[in-house]
Amino acid sequence: MNKRVVILMGGTSGEREVSLRSGAAVAEALRVLGYQVLPIDVAQDIAVKLGEFCSDTDVVFNALHGRYGEDGCVQGFCEVLGLAYTHSGVLASALAMNKPMSKRLFLNAGIPVPKGGVFSRQEIFAREPMSRPYVVKPLDEGSSLGVHIVREGEESPVGDYTWSHDERVLVEDYVPGRELTVAIMKERSLEVLEIRPSKGFYDYDSKYTKGCAEYLIPAPVSDSTREEALHLALLAHQTLGCRGVTRSDFRYDGSEGGLGLRLLEINTQPGLTPTSLVPEIAAHVGIDFQMLVKWMLEDARCNV
To answer: Which of 135, 148, 222, 293 minimizes the number of CB atoms within 10 Å of its CB?
Structure first.
């Protein structure tokens, strides 16, 4: 319990506020457990700050979300410094954050994913990329930032002057049905949870605003669907070489002649806020928030 823990939080991505909330919750839990905790709100000076504190740091708890925090960049810097850090390593983090690349690997592993491809904004302006409805999303963002469902009669969001993401986007078939998610803890699939947003799409606001979604755990699905979701989530975790805790998000179309399960993405650094899903799933199987955070800390490592 005398370990000195640096908590990286905040950052410069669009998920900064979520990261601050995750970091604050982790800091509180670790203090209660008796750890020496130093929360750091990082920005572009992350290299300087980590360099300053690395000699007095035993473990880095990475509570950053989004670009630079969970895409392999911070992980690589921790490797260079020889610091043990939580969550997945450099390669798995980079692969999971790159949606087109992770989709290729999932397909090769036999994991069903929505059909789609990468298009430039100019290509989408020139012609419709696929039949509507379809989903447009940035190549490497989390928390549903920039995700839009394009339905009949709607304008494509990439033509909007407010589009602030990359010039190339991922376009996928819209999979009707239900939102399911599975938490993995090392090599164990914990449980399947169903998300029922109060409005049609489980967007950023729904994820982080209390009362905007209902969570059903275990998800009210058949035993065979539950087992398949648990299996596919663990397979996705293993396919990318993830470690620690991950969360896999699915769409499930269980209607007659429907598509069944489709993996949308895997999150290598799921949120740890009061409304986050992994703590909810962990609590369902008897792992409270303090136990979860302690386990994540003890699982931290450096591959050097």
So the answer is: 222
